[in-house]
Structure formats: structure tokens, C-alpha cells
Request: fold
Amino acid sequence: MKIMHSLLLTALATLAPTALAQSAHAGHGRHAPAAHSAGTAAGTDDAALEAAFKRLDRDGDGFVTRQELPADHALLPHFGMSDADHDGRLDLGEFKHGMSML
Reply:
């Protein structure tokens, strides 16, 4: 019985940090929950993503920067992962890829 108790405690001690880390993954508490359902690539076609990109590209340079994203945009916590060439801005392809991660 002591062995089963020890195994159970070990399993809980191992899994608890993982569960907590996943719940706080990439700042998912910092933006509106509706941002996920409204802006994910799974429910949005290419034309809608391109329209969203153009709307966010306020200066019309063909890129979206952190400053151009609204503070509660779901992509903001994932910006660094989406910026494949690390130039501090997202082109349309990087934007689409980033949105597909949500």
C-alpha cells in the first residue's frame, strides 16, 4: 500500500507543474477569450485573414508590428514565435502562420 501511495504522490508531483504551466501558456489570460474564437485560422478562410491583416496594417507598409496590434489581440502573446525572420514585424505569411497557432 505504501508503494501505491508513493507512486500516486510522485505522479501528482510530476503532473501538477505541467498542468499549471499549460494553463498559463503564452499569456492566455491577458487577452479577451473571444479573440480566439473570432480570429483563429481554423474557422477563418484566407480572404478573411488577408482582410484582417490589411485592417491591422495601419501604415500600409505590408507588415504588422506589435504596436499595430490591439492590446487584447490574441496574436500579441505569440508575436515573437510568429515573427520567423525576427525583424520585429509580421508579413502576411507570418501573420497567417501565427493565427494558425491560436
About this structure: Residues 19-24, 36-42 have pLDDT under 50 and may be disordered. The radius of gyration is 19 Å. Helices lie at 2-23, 34-39, 46-56, 79-82, 92-100.
